[in-house]
Write a structure and sequence with these properties.
heterodimer; A: mainly alpha; ABC transporter involved in vitamin B12 uptake, BtuC; about 70% helix; B: mainly alpha; about 75% helix
Amino acid sequence: MISDLFTVTVLIGILASGIRLATPYLYAAIGETFSQKSGVLNLGVEGQMLLGAFAAFYVSLTTGNLWLGLLTAMLVGALMGLAMAYVTVNLHAQQGISGIGFYLFGLGMSDLLFQKLMGTVETVKGFPEIYIPGLSDIPGIGEIFFSQNILVYGAYLLVPLAWFVLNKTTLGLKIRSVGENPDAADSLGVSVARVRYFTIILGGVLSGIAGASLSIALLNVFQQNMTSGLGFIAVALVYFGGWRPVGVLGGALLFSLINSLQLWIQVLGIPIPSDIAVMMPYVLTILVLVATVSRVRSPSALSKPFEREN
Amino acid sequence: MRSRLNALFDALLPVLATLAALGVGAIMLIFLKVNPVTAYKALWDGAFGSSNAFAETLVKATPLLLVALGICISFRGDVINIGGEGQMIIGAVLATWVGLTFTGLPGWLAVTLALVAGFLGGAIWGGIPGVLKAYFSVNEILSTVMMNAIAVQLMNFLLRGPMIDPSQAELASKIPQTARLLDAFRLPRLAPTRLHLGALIAVVLAVAVYILLWRTTLGYRIRAVGQNPNASRYAGIKVQRYMVLALLLSGAFAGLAGAVQVYGVNYRMITDGSSSGFTGSAGFNGIVAALFGQLHPLWSIPASILFGALLVGANKMQRVVQVPSALVIALNGLVVVFVVSSEILRKRRQRRRLADDETPPVAGSAANQSTQAETGT
């Protein structure tokens, strides 16, 4: 039975779905990287994702326009980010706890809207796989890398883009300085508040896309609490990746490949209890956090509200 | 006089935050084309309308209070415990195992042992992230969330396999549940309602936690580490040890909540695959209640009753005006956001008070801070 795992078809299947499953983690975790780099811990990612997932699904279902759905998800994420920014930047609220508040809000709100506006689980035809002439036809490689939908590609393009913005642009420098030493940044004329507003709202938009990628690109359904902890794992991946987009990519791939392996183990009926298999990615994340976290330093001002001293 | 007014204002802040959240809820209800007055009336009736309703509210408030007590300890120690769900589950699993294994014991002994087992189970599940935080600097928010996911899968595995009800194991349906506890092993009822002894235990423990935090060295040290770890280290407190203890105790109370839920309400464990299926999200809502009670064990009592009432009332509201009870979860989230946001008002007033006093600033502020640490406001 175990040997069933090592056929070429199955391996290709595991890799292809692993690549695909990393998508929501990448969007959400890259967004969280931006906000944490600027010193803001956003624990509301899960709630933003749920509302994004619902908005994208509902708009796609009623208008038939997936892009409009995606846009709505981004808008909803941006609004959630705006609220989070106001509460943490202007009101100096404890970030971890207000994040839990936004999580509960998103959890309840998406469920409420789902029950009121839809009531039953429906499906949409999500973003189709993109056929790239030539590349998609390569045996194995084509199936793994070049037969995915647009949101999957977008997630992987986001990684170098985020690296570039954070490390090679003035904006990135401002974000990092605000997260490391807000007092110094402030005295050099950088608006700490403006930078943090930008990163938190950007994080919200990306979380919205992360939710949409679940509901209109990967699973093509909406259910209550469909993210089931995915947003919290995205936050963990930021620590895991040492606040670097490439590290986040590594973590997301590791996590989703193990998840995909776990799914295939169930599909093939290999006698490992499915509950134990589902547990594995979480155990692994803890172990890797133990192994890596103490080596990488978090942004110095992370989760500290900034207040100018008079 | 002025200080008493200030204290009153501070105590009223969370109430104002709740009213604000209900106000937002009313706007949402209007958008859903529901009369908010009718909806909130149904909610009130569902929570307080009859002695049965009120008993249900207290039954719902019991696990919230127990979790909230743990949260008071950990948050006072500046350790964020998001793992209440998982800790409840592990506590309940261990407690259930005790009750199903030692069937020969007298009832009172079995129940006592089971509650202790629940306490220990939660302590283990909270202690692991505590050790990871103190000695491996793993962020406890993340590890407790992971531990939640692991606990759910462990519960699902045990209830489908090793701990499944023998009669279910023979059936094709194989409902993932344990066997029912013996009748003698139930927590006694307090009135001809579903109200059980667990509620009384929780209230007694609230007093105990108050004493622990403000009348014992252990509690003083946990709070000292929470307020200023560096100063505590210089004062010779083993900071890491108290971080672990804060999370461990916090988990223990959540574990006890899980055990009380099994022995007072369900009399068995059953899973729908999710954690909220067993906990009713008490692990999260307990955080809300503790924050609302300003992380004070005694204030957590009315706070838990309030949120118990909201949750119980939401079901009635759902039946009467067809508004999904999920509305109350969203409102709970808003209450949390409003409560933490309103902290700034308290801080501003405090600063203004200090500035007004015109006493030598160093001595004045130090005295003020130390009294705060004593009373915990």
